[in-house]
Amino acid sequence: MSVYLYRWGKFAFRRKWIVIAAWIIALFVIGGVGGSLAKPFQDSFTMPDLPSERATKILDEHFPGASAGFDQNAVNGTYVIAASNGEKLTDPSNAAALQAFVTKLGELNIIDKTTPLMNPVDITKKIGERAGIDCLASDRSNPAFAANCSSAPLNVLNKEHPDTVATMQVKYTIPKYADLTAADREAAYKVGDDARAAGLQVELIGSITQDPGGSSGASEMIGIAVALVVMVIAFGAIVAAFVPILTALVGVGTAISVIMFGTHWLTVPTFTPILASMIGLALSIDYAMFIVSRYKHELAVSNSPEEAAGTAVGTAGSAVIFAGLTVIIALAGLTFVKVSFLTSMGIFGAVSAAMAVLVAVTLMPALMGAFGRFLFKPKLPLVAQHDPEDDTSVTNGQRFARLIGKAPALTLGISVVLLGLLAAPAVNLQLGLPGGDSMPQNTTIRKAYDLQTAGFGEGSNGTLMVAVDLSKTPENQRTEALDALRDKLAHYPGMDYLTVAQHSQDGQAAMFMGVPHSGPNNKETKDLVKDARNAESDLKAQYGMEYGITGTTAIFADVSQALLVKIIPYLAIVAGAAFILLLLVFRSILVPLTAALGFLLSMAATFGATVLIFQDGKFGLVEPHPLVSFLPIMLIGLVFGLAMDYQVFLVTRMREEYVHGKSAKEAMISGYHHGARVVTSAAIIMISVFSAFMLEDNVVAKSMGFAMAAGVFFDAFIVRMILIPSLLALLGDSAWWIPKWLDRILPDIDVEGAKLAELKQSSAPSEDKEHATIG
């Protein structure tokens, strides 16, 4: 591999303008095609074989159209209207404003006019008339009141502030979410402006409000700015620091264009472009910096800049390819989880990682040739004075490695204890999916959620739909069976109230709503769903009835549980594949094994820190919420790949020194001396890029950015730079042991560039002897 990359590096350096022009043309072509075919991003949390699908099947069979509200592709919306403090919606002035709003809403061209819209107050009256109850009466002590009026869209059951909040669920004519436009979203919200001017608060929640736009761009700019400063310090020159930024912009731009292209055929989650930006920026900059660092050294010892570029790509480029492969394997491995939205994010995340590798090994040598002798000018005084590639200089990395070598058992123990303490909060990990409560407080979605919570209770934001199949229940027992089910559910402590059952036209099914006390992501609500489902066996044995539970709450609980049980199999698949890859790179059994075990410690510490900040709300940095369900798997995939990057960057130099005759401890120190600066710089860049995403309004971006930044910090600075070197020093020669039979059958991929050295030595007489200087 090193020989092929060496030859490509020289070609790209020599034919720089052709390579650069080819990349520019490719970027514009891919970007143009992707932009022309792009469709809106869309979140879909549906998964195959979820327990909630049983209820959907019953609804589809006996209540056609009733399950449409749970269709992730449908455009839906619920208006939440509230009167001013101390007033009611039934007051004459508010009632008139509410009716005017309903009339204006009905005239909106995106509203389905098949069924005329009705005022929530009028609907509440009709519900009471059908049951023979006055749902607007001041005396609500009648026991039948709660049972019959609980489905009213006016908060008649609120004892402290009744008749102050109402909801209106509306149907839109927009066929599917992919057809939703910004103008539609704006019209749906602005239709309430007159009502707001009249003193009502009108907010909107549902898929109609969801903006498929990605990152604001501020986080990327912060990450790039920090990366630029880090590279200026690492290289001691300004121009060289800008080159990795150029490759990063090209890599990210190409990856995002491919993602846009993919939206034409696939349902791509809204978080995908944010994730691609995170991966693309961080990896592109890291890989480019790794190659430029090697190029800087090769300029001082090679016969020409072209030769230096070829050698840098042949050696550092080989490590970049294998480091990138670990990231790609980890992300592509998400397809084995068999969850549609994770599959999409994994595939396109792998695309972003592949682009980062591609631009590093193809575009970077061309840019080296384009900047020529100006690449490392002007040199900055007092910055990067000691070259880590110079064995005669003493760097801070070398000093720290010697400290580890003197007391490896102590440094190992300290790092393990520290990571263990950080991991402790992870035992309380709770998972959920982002809802209205996770949105910023200034958004209409969050305001609608809070209004509905105040008026109807937190559980009203995630009601349970109970669909009952009575086809196997004797007709004379169906009413009794249904009553037994409702009584059973009503006695659970987590249930707030149940609506009156609605029977199907064929009489073989029924459905009703259950409103929990707590919100969709609360543990109490998930326990309620579990208990309600567990009660089916007894009722089925007694009456022959079957039922399913669906709705936002049930679906959230199902998805969270399904993802939770897939973490271990996914980790095994990814770790196994990476172990084989690292076995090829290091030709050792214990080095890949310790690399994987160290990752488990860094992951545990990352989960603990993320739970502490985001779930428990410590330090008041964010509102406490359960961690998004797909965060653990995504975090494992991303950080595992990055962790193996640092393992490859740092430990390959240690192996190179060991193979060349140094003792295990001296090889560790020397390899640390060569690789510590680039790993430190790469980790700081990663952390800055990921941390900047905490500035996004999207709570998923915030938590994912923090978790990945924390994961990189713990893995790079504690595991890779303390724990692993300590283990290598303690294990000695046994760290590099491999059975002879295995060594014989493993392919020689030549990451260290031994074949490249042989090639250069054999062709030395014909090379240009002009010696290059850094200037």
Automatic annotation (TrEMBL):
Gene3D superfamilies recorded: Multidrug efflux transporter AcrB transmembrane domain
Matches recorded under InterPro entries: MMPL_dom, Mycobact_MmpL
Bilayer topology term: Multi-pass membrane protein
SUPFAM superfamilies attached to this UniProt entry: Multidrug efflux transporter AcrB transmembrane domain
Keyword Transmembrane helix among UniProt keywords: yes
UniProt keyword Zinc, yes or no: no
Domain Membrane transport protein MMPL stretches: 45-379, 480-738
Principal subcellular localization: membrane
Subcellular localization: Cell membrane
Keyword field: Cell membrane, Membrane, Transmembrane, Transmembrane helix
Listed transmembrane segments: 221-242, 249-268, 274-292, 313-334, 346-371, 409-431, 567-586, 593-615, 627-651, 672-694, 706-731
Protein name: MMPL family transporter
